[in-house]
Amino acid sequence: MNFTGERNEGGGVKVLNLYAGVGGNRKYWRGCSVTAVESDPKIAAVYQQLNPSDAVIVGDAHEYLRENYADFDFIWSSPPCQTHSKMAKATRHKNRKFPNMALYEEIIFLQHFFKGGWIVENVSPFYDPLITPTQQIGRHCFWGNYEFEADDVKRPANFINLSNVKGKNMLMEWLGIHYEENIYYAGNHCPAQVLRNCVHPDLGLEIFLAYQSKRLVA
Q1: CA 62 to CA 146: how far, in whole Å?
Q2: Which of 39, 68, 190, 207 is deepest in the core (most CB within 10 A)?
């Protein structure tokens, strides 16, 4: 797979999709050219298979945002959620981790420096959010600079515990995203985790359409 990192020429809204994963949020976006940043080469390769017209960059999404934010009209960021999730507190592991403050760094950065539309997404945390979300939908918190209405998408039964190949297949059907490979996050042996982390495409579309509508009116 050739990850050039070059901007595509799809036209329309210039979108930056950070911590892109396999691109659940992006699946139904139209009228845009998308640059996606994902740190894991194998996950990025699947994203590229699913979204061949996107420019895919394997690298540090946090740093890419700081250096390139001004080149885009719309930014969606989904920083890693594991240290914020309720599971981080519920687990019996003794190796506790500090919540990753990159989440709030990016919200504050976008609030004060970015002139376009933006969304930061994460799971509902085990603590009271340090910055009040713009919207909470299902298990997701969203921070952004525009109002939107969107419906949660019912998840498969026992969603959190879908952790094997059968669970992967169930989640692919739910998301409408299909690929052959079993891909894993570093230190993780669950082939379904990368799919559990996805924002459902229907939800991602509603939020993006709300931005496009606002942009047309402005």
Answers
A1: 22
A2: 207
Over residues 174-216, the pLDDT tens digits come to 999 999 999 988 777 889 999 989 999 999 999 999 999 988 7
Q: Report helix, strand and coil shares of the chain as percent, to nearest 5.
A: 35, 15, 50
Global pTM?
0.89
| Cα–Cα dist 195/199, whole Å | 9
| DSSP letters spanning 50-80 | H-TTSEEEES-HHHHHHHHGGG-SEEEE---
Separation of alpha carbons 11 and 16, rounded Å: 13
135-137: strand order across its sheet: 55-58, 32-38, 13-18, 74-77, 117-123, 140-144, 135-137
CATH classification at residue 99: 3.40.50.150
